[in-house]
Amino acid sequence: QVQLVESGGGLVQAGGSLRLSCAASGRTFSFNTMGWFRQAPGKEREFVSAITWNGGITYYADSVKGRFTISRDNAKNTVYLQMNSLKPEDTAVYYCAVYSKLYYTGSSQARDFVSWGPGTQVTVSS
Questions:
Q1: pLDDT digits 0-9 by tens, 11-50
Q2: Which residues are paired to 24 by β-bridges?
Q3: SS3 74
Q4: For the segment 69-96, what is each residue's pLDDT rounded down to a tens digit?
Q5: Buried b (16+ CB within 10 A) or exposed e, 32-70
Q6: Of 1, 4, 26, residue with least CA distance to 72
Q7: Which of 40, 48, 78, 118 has the fewest CB atoms within 10 Å distance of its CB?
């Protein structure tokens, strides 16, 4: 089973940038699609982005398209989320997770992802 740990969160002003990392251990995740989700206080966990096993295909929520970029380094067992032009509404705890099935079909449902990390807090001040 893979264990995930997110890092890179923090406090940033609106318009600023952060780069989140998700480090995997326990087994290789090289053949899995990986996803980023976020959850703001009082709200449901929502899909942010996903990347297929070789980085060939990426998916983004409409709310982050053009501002966030997902990438991965399978040699380092790490997935990244570069977040630019941050807005106060991006404030949330950000989680990474492993897609549970073999072939990714663009699902944005949290229930289709497993092995969630503990999350990292991102706070964007106005």
A1: 999 999 999 999 998 877 778 899 999 999 999 999 999 9
A2: 4
A3: helix
A4: 999 999 999 999 999 999 999 999 999 9
A5: bbbbbbbeeeeeebebbbbbbbeeeeebbbeebeeebbb
A6: 4
A7: 118
CA dist., res. 94 & res. 97, Å (int):
10
Q: Name residues whose C-beta falls within 8 Å of residue 77's C-beta, 6 or more positions apart in sequence.
A: 23, 24, 25, 28, 29, 30
Q: Count other Cβ atoms within 10 Å, centred on residue 92.
A: 22
Q: What six digits make up the tokens of 49?
A: 């982005």
CA distances from residue 92 to 5, 22, 43, 87 in whole angstroms, order as listed: 16, 16, 9, 11
| Residue type (1 letter), 71 | S
pLDDT confidence of residue 55: 80
